[in-house]
Amino acid sequence: MVPWFTDLGFPVPDFRISTGFPKSGGRGWTTAEAWREDGVQYFTIVVRPDQTDPLVIAASLAQQLALLAAGSKDRHGYLFRHLATSLGLRGRRAASPAGLVFKQLVAPVLEQVGPIPATSPGHGAAPAEKQSSRLIKVSCDQCGYVARVSRKWLDEVGPPHCPDHGPMRETS
Fold this sequence. Notes:
3-stranded mixed β-sheet; 3-stranded antiparallel β-sheet; 5 helices
């Protein structure tokens, strides 16, 4: 995508692409962010590792490249907007999804790149099922007082006692 910006007269500064979560963390909606550390001569574009849609990733990369090409003084201003719309990105300035023109421009690039490696939070493994409760429900037959206790303590010590009526019974 870098030649696109050069053709428009806005060369992109040196950058690297890495995976990681943006400053909003794993729960935010941001797909990519560009950062520059002090003393480093290049920008780092961080792409979420859990993002799997190549078109969304490409649009986010194009948006970050447009921000870098427009420069820090313009930050989502006129030049950025000009670059983003020239490439076929549409929408708000903070989020520029792919439009029809961008989809046509990026199709050969995505074909050349091939499948984009992405990992799920489980690093490719099937997501773990939610752990069921290990606590057993016990209740008092007389007043309905309810408590929960582990199987270990039910077997070793017996059920807890209701404050008013004594031993409780395991309920399903």
